[in-house]
Known about the structure:
The chain is α+β, with helices and mostly antiparallel strands. The protein has nine helices and 14 strands. The protein has helices at 67-80, 100-108, 126-133, 191-196, 220-228, 233-245, 253-277, 289-297, 321-332, and strands at 11-17, 20-21, 30-31, 37-39, 42-46, 52-56, 88-93, 115-121, 141-144, 150-158, 173-179, 199-205, 301-306, 309-314.
Amino acid sequence: MILGRELTGWVVIDLDATIITASSKKQGAAGTYKGSYGFHPLAAWCANTFENLAMMLRPGNSGSNTVVDHRAVIADALAQVPRAYRSRILIRLDGAGASHGLIEHLLSLSTRRRHVAFTSGFAITETDEQAIADLPEDAWGPSYEQDGRLDPHAQVAELTGAWRREDWPDGLRYLARRVKPSRRHAKKLTDYEKKTGWRYQITVTNIKNLGRAVPGSHHVFFLDAVHRQHAVVEDHVRTEKATGIRNLPFKGYARNQAWLLAANIASDLLAYLQLLGLDQEHDLARAEPETLRATLLRIPARLVHHARARTLKIETTWPWAKAFQTCWQRLSAPPDPG
């Protein structure tokens, strides 16, 4: 849901990389851009189902915007999407992953049978700041939170037509966003941002609109909200680390790749547990893995064998006994033939 509207017919893929710390004894570990030591895997998640579609284990010194790695992960992610759902794909990534080569590759993914839309941020240069400075004040419009409430601390504007990134392909839209900086951003502000009192971001996209099924999707504020929802990828990263990738246990690179795959499968199983069995349980449908372990996966119960039958006896005082029973019945029910 974006501002109360469903992206009907679209499969949304979010890309992001994360740091996994490790000792120098592990094969492939290297220094990271954060000054730590370990690995820097790149992954893609499906925002529709919360499952991990692909993850590439990389040395810690791998770049955030390496085009070859992004192309490989995107290809693996698209291969995981069932063929019947590949006609409309939306790919989102933050500014750390953006590059000239990747934008050109994303534009090349569309075919007669598949439309690939994307949104991406990128690092702003002094030239970009000059383009923002040339915008008239009345060009700035409102920005909205994901629940539709007006964001009083941010504004958005269309840069397309007034400016374009040098040497970047034609047909792109550039959206500017300005927000009142928080204390943690104060040290990173440029001279121009300190002068104006705003922190600026630019989003590049090839989206003109998302079709008639998503009315109003051509507006700047709507596309701004679409891109900012990419932040949910942080929840996926946290889930992956909670299900096994926080510490890769082996010395060998290949064995750690296998461990990474096993952790991906574990996070996917949790995603489908919540999607299919817990979607009516509001406190559990988006719960963290630690919460699911404490409430459902480690439920106090006894498995009793009697008369060639097995019975699971659950403590009646357990607060989540009803949720467990409902989830079990939903997952055990035969599939709908329709």
